[in-house]
Design goal:
Elements (H helix, E strand, L loop, with lengths): L3 H13 L5 H8 L3 H11 L15 H20 L3 H10 L1
Amino acid sequence: MRTPGNNESVRAAEGRSPRRSARRHSAGHKVSSRSLRRIPQSDLHYHAYKLNIVEELSEGDFYSRSVFCEQFVALVKEHPDVIHLLAEYNQQ
């Protein structure tokens, strides 16, 4: 059952042991596991999130990008219509 007293005890319990499962928390508070999963989301406005690992630029990336840009500028100077060809290709 979701009551203000249960909400506070769930908030305190999750603060003490956030990695503990909802099933184990519910057994300790004598609350159904479904109610215990609803309390953080509905009543406390907590929302789960997942960390994403992203790539980081290395030292050689700046040089590689600079070389690419120089080659692309040379290509555009040599063939000015290449931009229109790329734009048409991307629209397909």
